[in-house]
Specification:
The chain is built from three helices and eight strands. It is of the alpha/beta class.
């Protein structure tokens, strides 16, 4: 189980709702599956409605800060503008080639705009998807 504070949960949802027609993204760090820091990242994808690509400088800066604070990279978040909070084939391919099992994939769905949903997943090297429960404190 991964733990988020209510403030962190609400920050991810608010980030997604700020630009509901474009995917947003960010980085999460902490210790022992407890999120302690959240960094927003710029989405540099050409087609931001259906894709996200985190700005490499934002990734570098946030991971450097996480490591400096002696924390672990817990995962990355992004939003789905009009689909469910479940990894798309593009998400799976990205995790397989880039992050593997070392980072959780958090997805905030705005499919029902008045009921945003945040879920987290492990995606392994073979592409298998397993949900990681989120506890909001």
């Amino acid at each position: 189980m991964v733990q988020l504070s209510k403030t962190q949960h609400d920050e991810i949802v608010a980030h997604a709702q700020e630009t509901p027609s474009e995917e947003v993204c960010g980085v999460l760090g902490g210790r022992d599956n407890h999120v302690e820091v959240l960094y927003r990242a710029r989405n540099t994808a050409e087609s931001r409605r259906t894709r996200f690509e985190m700005d490499s400088r934002d990734i570098f800066t946030s991971i450097r800060d996480i490591e400096k604070a002696d924390m672990d990279l817990i995962g990355f978040y992004h939003s789905h503008t009009h689909t469910q909070a479940y990894p798309s084939p593009t998400d799976v391919a990205m995790w397989q080639s880039t992050w593997g099992e070392s980072a959780l994939c958090f997805i905030c769905s705005l499919m029902e705009p008045d009921r945003p949903l945040l879920r987290a997943f492990h995606i392994n090297a073979a592409g298998a998807i397993t949900e990681e429960p989120i506890a909001v404190e």
